[in-house]
Design goal:
Elements lengths: L1 H18 L24 E4 L12 H9 L4 E8 L5 E3 L22 E5 L2 E5 L7 H4 L24 H9 L6 E6 L2 H7 L8 H11 L9 H5 L4 E3 L2 H7 L7 E5 L19 H7 L5 E4 L1 H4 L2 E2 L2 E2 L5 H7 L3 E2 L19 H11 L4 E4 L2 H11 L11
Parallel strand pairs: 1-2, 1-13, 2-6, 7-8, 8-9, 9-12
Antiparallel strand pairs: 2-3, 4-5, 10-11
Protein name: glycerophosphodiester phosphodiesterase
EC number: 3.1.4.46
Keywords: Glycerol metabolism, Hydrolase, Signal
Amino acid sequence: MTTLCTILFTLLLLFVCCSARRTYLFPGIGHKSPKQPLQTSRPFNLAHRGSNGEFPEETAAAYRRSIKEGADFIETDILSSKDGVLVCHHDVILDITTDIAEHKEFAGRQRAYDVQGFNITGFFIVDFTWKELQTLRAKQRFSFRDQQYNGKFPIITFDEYISIALDASRAVGIYPEIKDPVFINEHVKWPNGKRFEDVFVDTLKKYGYRGSYLSKHWLKQPCFIQSFAPSSLVYISSKTDLPKIFLIGHTAWQTEDTKQTFLEVTSDAYFNYIKKYVVGIGPGKDTVVPAVNNHLQAPTDLVVRAHAHSLQVHPYTFRNEYQYIHFEFHQDPYIEFDFWINKMGVDGLFTDFTGSLHDFQEWTSPLSPGNGERP
């Protein structure tokens, strides 16, 4: 009897193991039926560094969670290791969002570099090989967010990030940023005279990303390329027809490459120039609607003027915490979403809390089968 039970248990175990679904697939494997298309009938839900209100930013866990919660696009920042591997990481230093301080083997690796006019001391990503970066683990940027996942997830590559989007059961767009290109090109050298932007575009081409905005191919593999550096966007315009977004910082700040203030590059004259290369802008929220002492001021005409130049507007960053929601919204992110979508008329929102934005849009403008393309 004991032998018979053992045999039956073994057969059951084999059946369960063989029939279990993989939790992660490589690109192009496992999704043979047509994917649910990208929605284009309402503003895009842009997962800012993934669902980083819940998981450490730019990790596979944050991106997968944001897809599950309904993100239209998953956004990332692309930097490079010392040996030229493109990785997903926001800061040029590793100090804030990794556990590098716990790695005694790297104790002597701090450096001081000039980054966009600021002298910064820290552990710079460009001073570490990809093999060394793989030993680090991510941690939550903000102390008031959930800390239980600190130390559990590694840094991922640009390729891994793309794979996560491609393996989704529906069409999920990617939204990578050419991050700090002046700094990266100064400290990392690639073979054959290539520069950061070349390697960035080559990676997208390797996975089949191409096509102008709303083209048939683009809708299958949606992608926006973003950068605060206008010269990078102009440079790649002859290398890819993928739509590009020019990021806009505080009006007093300067672009890292052309050294123009962001006030200058939001003029009508500059929009006339840059719209030949980009389909939209990504401004900070307070650049569009200023705030003083956490109170909203009169909106600028930035959205209206951008739309007059046929440029989309994707503002950043929407966060659920009270520190980031102005008093007029009564600590309610849904009231804030309503203001930006229905009053300001933006075309997409970068949010740390993808699920909240998705719920708001489902309740106020639910998708239906065959939703039409946005004009």
